[in-house]
Design goal:
Elements lengths: L11 H56 L21 E6 L2 E12 L7 E2 L12 E10 L2 E16 L7 E3 L3 E3 L2 E5 L9 E3 L4 E3 L6 E4 L3 E3 L4 E3 L4 E2 L3 E3 L3 E3 L5 E2 L3 E3 L4 E3 L2 E2 L3 E3 L28 E2 L3 E3 L29 H6 L3 E5 L2 H8 L3 E10 L4 E4 L3 E12 L2 E4 L4 E3 L4 E6 L25 E3 L4 E3 L2 E12 L12 E12 L3 E5 L10 E14 L1
Parallel strand pairs: 6-9, 6-34, 7-10, 7-34, 8-11, 8-35, 9-12, 10-13, 11-14, 12-15, 13-16, 14-17, 15-18, 16-19, 17-20, 18-21, 20-22, 21-23, 24-25, 25-27, 26-28, 27-29, 27-30, 28-31, 29-32, 30-33, 31-33, 33-34, 34-35
Antiparallel strand pairs: 1-2, 2-3, 2-4, 4-5, 5-36
């Protein structure tokens, strides 16, 4: 018969507990594994979304670059091609990783089908008509996603030139003079492409300029209460003559010296010597040559730096294209047909007398060019013009404003244009005088307070722009709103202007591109 080995069941509970614990452990491992899987999948999905967002950001960043970049600087896939920008790249700091994008772009002409253009050959004369954009986004260098877009490009011109005044052959101010910045994205800069810039005590005047000053191959002489709110950069010497003279930004002389008794708010750089006041930052005064210890010399709040002039580049210049009525010279722009294509009506006046009579009490709605021929000097006397639109007065000889002239508009453009002539050399206006006289047959001469109301004014001449009396704006301020493009600028009395870019049809360089987006999509 069977024999019972144990008459108790002690220890069975331990076995059951171990079995239950093992089952719970297996379930826990499964839950942990599932949780890790879900976390990894969620993280991957999050990185995919971040990569897609980065790719979209790359497309938008490229569109932003298009809006403010001329064709000769458009981004190329290969960096270092001429003036062109390198590929558009960027990153977005998003937790838990960094999302980055890189944009590849190809440019095309307007033909059908479109032909791809060589990026290195793009320029003002060869702008693209369309672009194919591919932006690849990644997160922590992984999980790439790509957005692609096709965009037709709309040329945006800079409104004349992105400068308040461009003087090809020098500028001198012997009266009180103000160039104001409208506080927009435009800067009221002054460019002197050839010759010198002089303002100040020896000329009997002072100046306030909100923008930058660039003198491409000459010197700068500032004096009196002249105040420049930004930088001054000249090829040759820069002199801030008087203690009241100030430059709030930096001052650079690429090849020569900095001197005077004025103050510089930023850094000072010169190719030869810097004459410093003993108020200069003592830690930097060692770069002055030599430091002046008697209370004279420049007060420099930034760092004085001497550099090798042989390796110093000149400041930039802004060339003024020749504006002609007919293409007499190969590089002429803004011919008669260009005005017609821009929607202007042409009114031909064949003598000075006929032009003066036509303008005497002109009232016109629309876009009008008064083309004056057979007139060596158009003298405007008591002209009262009311224009609801844009008006251009285009002549081949001198324009002189005499007895009170009033031009009233409705926010449009008013052009005074003396057609281009080669080899025009205005006489220097350096000599102090009560008023300056015309020195060439192609000058624009302002006398007796012309009144320019509610108009953006553009003046172009290969000669000199001479202001002997204050321009007005119906008693408002500033008296003149617009920009001045010419051979030389001279002012002998109070003059004030606010910079506003004014588009001369076909002349103004392409400053950027608007976008007509045909499609944006994700691709593999």
């Amino acid at each position: 018969m069977p024999i019972r080995l144990h008459d108790q069941e002690r220890g069975a509970a331990l076995i059951v507990a171990l079995l239950v614990t093992f089952v719970v452990l297996l379930l826990s491992l499964f839950v942990v594994q599932l949780s890790l899987h879900n976390t990894t999948a969620s993280s991957y999905d999050r990185m995919r979304v971040q990569s897609l967002t980065a790719a979209e950001a790359g497309v938008n960043d490229f569109f932003n670059v298009l809006q403010r970049t001329p064709p000769e600087r458009l981004p190329c896939n290969i960096p270092g091609i001429g003036l062109h920008l390198g590929p558009v790249t960027g990153s977005i700091q998003i937790f838990p990783g960094t999302a980055s994008y890189a944009v590849e772009v190809h440019y095309y002409d307007a033909s059908t089908p479109p032909v791809e253009l060589d990026c290195a050959l793009l320029g003002q004369d060869n702008p693209p008509a369309a672009a194919s954009v591919a932006s690849t986004g990644t997160t922590n260098g992984t999980v790439p996603r790509k957005m692609q877009a096709w965009v037709n490009l709309i040329k945006h011109r800079s409104g004349g030139f992105n400068a308040a005044i461009v003087a090809d052959k020098g500028m001198c101010v012997s009266g009180n003079y103000t160039v104001d910045d409208p506080g927009t994205s435009f800067s009221a800069d002054l460019y002197v492409n050839s010759g010198n810039l002089c303002i100040g005590s020896q000329q009997g005047g002072n100046m306030t300029v909100e923008g930058k000053i660039f003198v491409h191959d000459g010197s700068v002489s500032l004096g009196g209460n002249t105040a420049v709110r930004n930088d001054v950069w000249a090829w040759s010497s820069v002199s801030l003559a008087d203690t009241q003279t100030s430059v709030q930004g930096s001052v650079i002389s690429s090849s020569s010296s900095l001197s005077g008794n004025g103050s510089i708010g930023g850094s000072a750089k010169a190719g030869t010597t810097i004459t410093c006041n003993n108020k200069t930052n003592p830690a930097a005064i060692g770069n002055c040559s030599p430091p002046v210890l008697n209370g004279q010399g420049l007060v420099i709040r930034g760092q004085p730096i001497l550099r090798d002039s042989a390796q110093s580049a000149p400041p930039p210049a802004t060339s003024v294209p020749p504006v002609c009525w007919t293409a007499v010279w190969a590089d002429c722009v803004a011919t008669q047909q260009d005005w017609i294509n821009a929607g202007y009506t042409i009114e031909l006046e064949t003598s000075c007398t006929l032009a003066q009579t036509y303008l005497q009490n002109l009232m016109y709605t629309g876009n009008l060019v008064v083309r004056v021929t057979g007139c060596s000097e158009l003298v405007l006397n008591q002209v009262n013009v009311q224009i609801n639109g844009n008006l251009a007065i285009f002549t081949d000889g001198r324009i002189r404003f005499d007895t009170r002239n009033v031009f009233t508009g409705n926010g449009g453009n008013l052009y005074f244009i003396v057609g281009y002539q080669p080899n025009v050399n205005p006489t220097s206006c350096l000599v102090p005088a009560q008023s300056y006289a015309a020195t060439t047959d192609y000058d624009i001469l302002f006398n007796n307070n012309p009144d320019l109301r509610s108009l953006h004014v553009s003046m172009y001449t290969p000669g000199a722009m001479i202001f002997n009396n204050q321009t007005k704006n119906g008693g408002g301020s500033p008296p003149l709103t617009g920009q001045l493009l010419g051979g030389q600028f001279c002012s002998s009395n109070y003059f004030s202007m606010q910079f506003a870019p004014v588009l001369i049809p076909t002349v103004s360089p392409i400053a950027g591109f608007g976008q007509d987006v045909l499609w944006v999509r994700e691709v593999a």
